[in-house]
Amino acid sequence: MLAVGLVLLLAAGLGQGTTRGVLREELLLRPLPVGDVAAVFQFRTRWDADLQRGAVSHYRLFPKALGQLVAAHGVRELHLALTQGFWSTQSWGQPPLGAPAGAELWVWFQDTVPDVDKAWKELSNILSGIFCASLNFIDSTNTVTPTASFKPLGVANGTDHRLLRYAVLPREVVCTENLTPWKKLLPCGSKAGLAVLLKAERLFHSSYHSQAVHIRPICRDASCLAVSWELRQTLTVVFDSFTSGQGKKDWSLFKMFSRTLTDACPLASESKVYVDISPKNKEKDLLEVTPTPTSVHEAIVQGDKTTYAVYDLLSPMLFNTSRSLNVQLKWKRPEDSSELSTPIMHAHRYVSGYGLQTGEISTLIYNTHPYRAFPVILLETVPWYLRLYVHTLTIITKGKENKPSYIHYQPAQDRKRPHLLEMLIQLPANSATKITIQFERALLKWTEYPPDPNHGFYVSSSVLSALVPSAIAMKNVNVEESPLFTSLFPSSDGSSYFLRLYTEPLLVNLPTPDFSMPYNVICLTCTVVAVCYGSFYNLLTRTFHVEEPSRGGLAKRLANVIRRLRGVPPI
Amino acid sequence: AVSVSVVFLPGSVPADLPRRLPYGDVREERVPVSCKSPAVCTARPPRGAWEALRAVPYGDTFLPRLSRVAPGSSVCWQSCLCSQPSLLPLPQGVNVYVGKHRSALVRAGQGLAILHARLQQLLQVVSLTASSIAAALSDRVPDGQLGPDAWRHLKSSLGYEITFSLLNPDPKSHDVDWDIEGAVNHYVQPVLDKLSLVANFSVDSQILYYAVLGVTPRFDKESSSFILSAHSLPHVINPVEARLGSSAASLYPVLNFLLYVPERSHSPLYIQDKDGAPVATNAFHSPRWGGIMIYNVEVPASPQTSLPLHVDVDMLRVMEVFLAQLRLLFGISREELPPEFLVESPGNEGLADWELDRLLWAHALENIATVSTTLTSLAQLLDQISNIVIKDDVASEVYRAVAAAQDAVAELAEGHLHSAFQASKEAVTSSERAFFDPSLLHLLYFPDDQKFAIYIPLFLPMAVPILLSLAKMLREARQNKKEPTKMD
C-alpha cells in the first residue's frame, strides 16, 4: 500500500518529465555537533526510457557509459561508493548516506542474466575503468551474496538474493582521479550549477569524503506500468571548519569550497541549496544565515524534525541583488555547552588479542533509545585468511546472552571466498550489545602478500541495517519533494525509518615472513662456498718453498740504523 | 581475379573479333608492393580477365537483363558494348557508364584494341588498384611510400561502433535538439545494412554539454564571423575526446561523428581551408577517428529573444556530411574517374555493389596480412623465450588461423569474395585469440639475465682468486720473457 502511495508522490513530483530526462541538483549543508560542516551534493538524473531492452542507444542527459553498462550486463540496480575517511556516527550524528571506508559496490542483476558471476566480474572491471578505481581487484575472495542486508531500492519484482553481489575494498584510496570521471558524468560537468563547488583540492582537504553512484529503476507514473531509470550521483564531504576557522564555528561557501555559486545548471529543472538550521536544544535563533533564504522548508528526516533554509537557484530573485550566492552561517554567541546528542544507534568494532596466532573481533552496538527496542541486521564479511571459530560467537546484552533470531553463516574457502555472517539481533532499549568471535590467522603463500605486508590487512566494515524508531511520528511526507536521500530509503511506516551504518574497517596483522630471507640465504651460502672455494683454489695452485729471510724485520733495520749512527757495524 | 563477360549489342561486334565464340582473353597485371615481412608479399595482386561470351541479338531489352545479374559469390562483371551511339541512352562524351550493380555499359569503337583499353580503364575503376592495396597493407609498408589517403581508411575489424555526438558548449543560449533516432533509421541504417557483410555495426548517440573545442576561433572582421583555419584543426579534437567516453560494451573501434553547435559568442563559425576559402560543408574529418561538423545557429534579428533559443537540427544536412565522411573512412570514395566515365548514383543505400566488392576485397587482404603479422610475432616470441609453454588450445588456434588464412587466399584467387572474407575473418579471430592468450604473457617467464644476477654473490667471490692467479701468471710470464733462462 505504501508503494502505491510512493508511486503517486513520484508522479506528482515529476509530472513535467519528458523523454529527454530530468536533472535535479541539490546541496545540503549541515552544521555538525562538534563544529564540522557536512556538505552533501546530490544530482538526480531521471530518464523515461527502458534501458534494459538494449534498444535505446541515444543518450541525452543520462551518461552513455553508464547506460550502456546497465543495458549490456543486465543490471537492475547498481550502487557504487568510494569513500576516504570514516563517518564517525557518535560525534557527527547519523550519516545522510552511509558508506564504508574504501570502495563499496553492490549490484542487483536481472533474472535473465545467465551467469551472474561472469557479469559481475566484467561489470566491476568496466567500472574500474570508468572511475579509475581498483575495482578490478573484486573477485570471488571478497564478493559475497548477502541474504537479508541489502534489498533492492528501486522497483523490483522479486528479491532472489542469488542475483545480488556485494563487495568492499577497504584498502582503496580515493582521490582526484576518482572525482574527475565522476564529475564528467554530470550533464553540466563542473562548468555550471552546484558542481562548480567541487574543487578537488578543497574536497580532499577534509575529514571525510564519499562519492557515490546509484542507478535504480523507478516507476514512471502512478500506474507503474513502465519504468524510468534514475541515476543519483552523491558526494558527501565533511569540512573541519573549527580548526580552519580559527576556533570559530562560522562558515561560508567561499571558506569551504573557495568558490561561490553564480548560476544553476541550465539543464536542471531544480537546483536548490538547503541549509540545516534546525534548532538544537530548544534554543531558537542561535544561528544566522545570510543572505535571506528564498523559503524555509520543514521535513522529518531520519526521525527528527528538521528545518531547512532553502535557496532556489532557479528563482530569479536570488541573483537580483548580487551576482553570486555565498551562503554564510554565523553563530550569534558561542555555544557554551558542547553536549552531544548521541544518535539512537551507533556501533564500534575493534580487534583484540595478542600474538600473531589468534585474535578476536568485537563489535559493539548501542541502542540509546530510552524505551524502544528494535532489531538490527548485522553483516560481517571477513576474508578467508582470518579463520573464524564460529563456536566462539557470543552476543551479550546487559550481561545476558542474546540469541539472534536469524543466522546465516557461509564459511570461507581458502583462496576462494570469504566468511559471510549475517545475524538478526534484537537490541533492547538503552543497551549496548557486544558481539565477539575469535579467529586464527592463516599463513599466506609468499606471493599472496600485498606490497608492504607489515602495514596489515584490512577487514571491511560490517554493515548494520535497522529500522530505527523515530522520535517524532512521521507523516506520509511528500518523499519526492523532501531533499536528498529520504527518497532513496522510503520509510515503511510512520514510526520508524531505515538506517544503514558502517563500522570502522579493521587492520589486522598477519604473520609476515621476512621477504629478503631467500636472497639472504643465497648470499650467505654463496659467500661460504666462495670462501671455501678460494682457499681450496689457493691451496691447490700455489707453490710453497722455503724463503731465506733476506733483510729481516723492521726492528732489525731500526737497530742497524742506530748502530750505524753509533758507528758500530750492523748485525 | 575479376572475370568480365562482355555482351555485344547488335552491330557492335568488332571486326577483328575471332569468329568463334565464346572468346576469352586473360590479362595479368602485377602490382609491386614492397613489404617489410616476406610473408605478406604472397598477397595476390588482382588480375584482369575478360571473355566475350556471345554476341547477343537483343535489342533494347538488355538493360533489365543486365541488372538481373545475380550478386553471386564470385566477382563477375558484365559489360555491354555498343558502337552505335543512338542505341545507348548515354550523354554525349560519356563512353563508360558504371551501374549500381556489377554491370557497365561501354561504348567502344570498331577495333578490339579500343575495347581492351576501355575494359582496362573500367577495371581500374571498379577493381582493386595498386593504391588501394597499398592502403590495405599500409601498416606493413615502409613509411614514406604512401600518400595521405592510405592512412585515412579504418583498419579492418570484426565490428565498428558509430557514435554520433552533439556538442552543445553553450546550453544557456542554445537548447539544441536533434532527431537522431529518425535520422539514423532513415539515412544511416540502409548503408549499414549493406555494409553488414563487412562487419557488425552498432550505432549510438549522445549529447554533451559544455564540451568546447580546443582552439579559440579567430574573428574575421570582413565577414563578421569566426574562423577556424585548417592548420588549427589538429588541435580541436583532444579536449573534446576526453569527454566522449569510451564504450563500455565492446572492444570494437569507435567512429566518432561530432556535430558542434558553436557558442553564441563564437557564432557563426566557419572552417577555412589552406587557401583561406571557407569550406562548403563546414566539416572536416580525422583519419581513422571520425568527423566533425560545425552547425551554425541563425542568430535571430531581435536581440530580445528569450534565451535559451530552441534549435532543431536539420538532420538531412548533417547526415549528408556524415555519410560522406563515413564513406571516406571506409575507403569507398570515388577517386580520379577518367573523364568519359559516368557512375550511377547508389541511391539510398549509399553504396554500389561493386564498391562493396572492393571493400570486401580490401578487408580480406588486410585481414590476411594481419594474420601473417600476428603469427610472425608469435613465432618471434617463441624464439625469444625458449621455455614458453604452448597449450593445446593455443596450438589449435594457430593451426586454425593458418588453415583459414590459406583458405582465404585460395578463395580470393578463385574470386569468391564472400567466402574469402569469412575465412579471413576467422583467421584473424583465431590468430588474435592465440596471440593474446594469457598463458603467453611475456612477463610470466623468468628472464635468464636475472637468474645470473641472483648468483652474483657466488660468482663474484669465486672469480676473485681465479682472476688474481691469472694476473699473477701473466706477470710471471712477462718476467720470464724479460730475463730468459738464468739458471743456476
TrEMBL record, chain A:
Keywords: Signal. It holds the Pfam family Gpi16. InterPro entries: PIG-T. One of its GO terms (cellular component) is GPI-anchor transamidase complex. It comes from the Eukaryota. Residues 1-17 form the signal peptide. GO terms for biological process: attachment of GPI anchor to protein. This is Phosphatidylinositol glycan anchor biosynthesis class T.
TrEMBL record, chain B:
It comes from Phasianus colchicus (Common pheasant). Pathway: Glycolipid biosynthesis; glycosylphosphatidylinositol-anchor biosynthesis. InterPro entries: PtdIno-glycan_biosynth_class_S. The chain crosses the membrane at residues 452-471. One of its GO terms (biological process) is attachment of GPI anchor to protein. Keywords: Endoplasmic reticulum, Glycoprotein, GPI-anchor biosynthesis, Membrane, Transmembrane, Transmembrane helix. GO terms for cellular component: GPI-anchor transamidase complex. It comes from the Eukaryota. Pfam families: PIG-S (PF10510). PANTHER family: GPI TRANSAMIDASE COMPONENT PIG-S (PTHR21072:SF13). It is a multi-pass membrane protein. Its main location: endoplasmic reticulum. Belongs to the PIGS family. It is found in: Endoplasmic reticulum membrane. This is Phosphatidylinositol glycan anchor biosynthesis class S. The keyword RNA-binding does not apply.
